[in-house]
Design brief:
Blueprint lengths: L5 E4 L5 H9 L3 E4 L8 H8 L4 E4 L7 H6 L5 E4 L9 H6 L4 E2 L6 H16 L2 H9 L21 E4 L3 H14 L3 E4 L5 H7 L2 E2 L2 H7 L2 E4 L13 H6 L5 E4 L8 H9 L5 E4 L19 E3 L8 H21 L13
Parallel strand pairs: 1-2, 1-3, 3-4, 4-5, 6-7, 6-9, 7-8, 9-10, 10-11, 11-12
Length: 328
């Protein structure tokens, strides 16, 4: 039954998915402000709705779920869902949908671009023009390095990691090593990739690109100990989640020249403070969590998030579900 089911929509999401919900005659309530709702605002509004279309900036924790156990479904406009207390939602029988693979191409592009930008100091050199520092040719100033044949290390060789590796092999003939909890035989065959231990990944990577989920096991796994094991010529790339690296330790490693540079699309916390020392480092490039920022990716995310809700009310299924045991 779809008629009159009320959906709380927490941000201004692309019309591609919203129009699907309208066509199915859901009652839609929109949060129209640019900022996210506070936890109190989110709870107050969700109490009057049957389902929730939310994103990473919405805190769906135990406190929220205790006050809104009536929700039929939560559909997340994101690939990740670390903002949602999944075990608690499962205990309360609430299915949680998400949007896997909708942004894989876009995020791989960002990782690839950050790798090149860090290796050639794009952001720093751009700032020299803005600051009026483009002077005479200096043959030894601000040199980067070439990527041809460098070893790419992937931490988390899933959908996005595979697409990053494809780009690196095609453009720069980079050998690929990776570390996963479980091996990826298909990717090994396709990419001629080699599984290595985490320590070997740190020791052998010229470019180390992070593409894993944020879990208790991966939180701050790239810390002082990890950076100490990396090559002093290595570049660290993180387009997954900010807390996977420990930011003070990354800053310290860069200052001590334990690693050469970094490219970040995610930080901890977000948003990053404008006086963060990473922003003034010559070999560091930082973006404001823009990995899915293409029209194509955001439209796909909107459609998948909407389809999760539509299919749930039509068939009892959620096409892309985090906790399928709820429906079982």
């Amino acid at each position: 039954m779809i008629d009159n089911q009320k959906i709380l929509i927490t941000r201004k999401y692309p019309a591609a998915g919203i129009n699907l919900l309208r066509q199915e005659r859901f009652c839609l309530t929109f949060w129209e402000k640019d900022r996210p709702m506070t936890p109190e605002e989110l709870t107050a509004r969700a109490k009057d709705h049957q389902s929730l279309l939310c994103t990473l900036t919405d805190r769906i924790d135990k406190r929220f779920l205790d006050q809104c156990p009536h929700l039929d479904i939560i559909s997340q406009f994101a690939v990740g869902y670390d903002n949602i207390d999944i075990p608690e939602a499962t205990r309360k029988g609430i299915p949680v949908g998400y949007t896997p693979d909708a942004m894989s191409e876009a995020t791989a592009d960002i990782a690839f671009g950050l790798m090149i930008a860090a290796a050639r100091k794009f952001f720093f050199l751009h700032k020299t023009i803005i600051n009026g520092q483009w002077g005479y040719f200096n043959p030894t100033a601000h040199l980067g390095f070439e990527l041809k044949g460098k070893t790419l290390g992937i931490f988390g060789l899933g959908r996005i990691g595979v697409k990053m590796a494809q780009r690196c092999k095609a453009a720069y003939d980079m050998p690929v090593i990776y570390h996963n909890r479980t091996r990826n035989p298909a990717a090994e065959k396709q990419l001629n990739a080699t599984w290595v231990s985490f320590d070997r990944l740190l020791e052998q990577s010229d470019i180390l690109s992070v593409h894993c989920a944020l879990t208790p096991e991966t939180r701050h796994i790239f810390n002082a100990r990890a950076f100490e094991k990396m090559k002093p010529s290595a570049v660290f790339i993180n387009t997954a989640r900010g807390p996977i690296h420990k930011e003070p330790d990354l800053i310290d490693a860069l200052n001590k020249k334990q690693i050469w540079g970094a490219g970040l699309d995610v930080t901890d916390p977000e948003p990053m403070a404008k006086d963060n020392p990473l922003l003034s480092m010559e070999n560091v490039c930082v973006l404001p969590h823009a990995g899915s920022g293409t029209m194509e990716a955001r439209d796909r995310m909107s459609v998948l998030a909407a389809e999760n809700i539509i299919e749930f009310y039509k068939t009892g299924r959620v096409p892309h579900i985090v906790n399928p045991e709820v429906l079982a």
